[in-house]
Amino acid sequence: MDKLQKFELMNKIVRELEDLQNSQTALIEKIGKIEVDNMNGLNDSYLEKNLGTMHGKIAENVDSVTEIFAHFEAQRDEYAEKNSAAIAAAEAAAALEALK
After folding, report:
1. Which residues of 7-35 are buried (b: 16+ CB within 10 A; e: fewer)?
2. DSSP classification of residue 57
3. What is the reported pLDDT for 95?
């Protein structure tokens, strides 16, 4: 795998981690809405207990994904900085090849 391919793969992983982070955040928001609805009239103890547990577990996942995302994004940026000339040359060569 050349430097450009590796950089592109790293970018793909960063996008996927960001999507995962957004998905986990959306789950927390949805659970929160259900919890509020339950508190505003239903007061179902089973929902209260289990949604609270789920909320906590997903919040832990969000923290983990956020940490992984930040670490890998920094790693990708460092790689791009160290290999900027090789990446730029490969991108230029690919652009020229695409014109043929």
Report:
1. beebeebbeebeebbeebeebbeebeeeb
2. H
3. 87
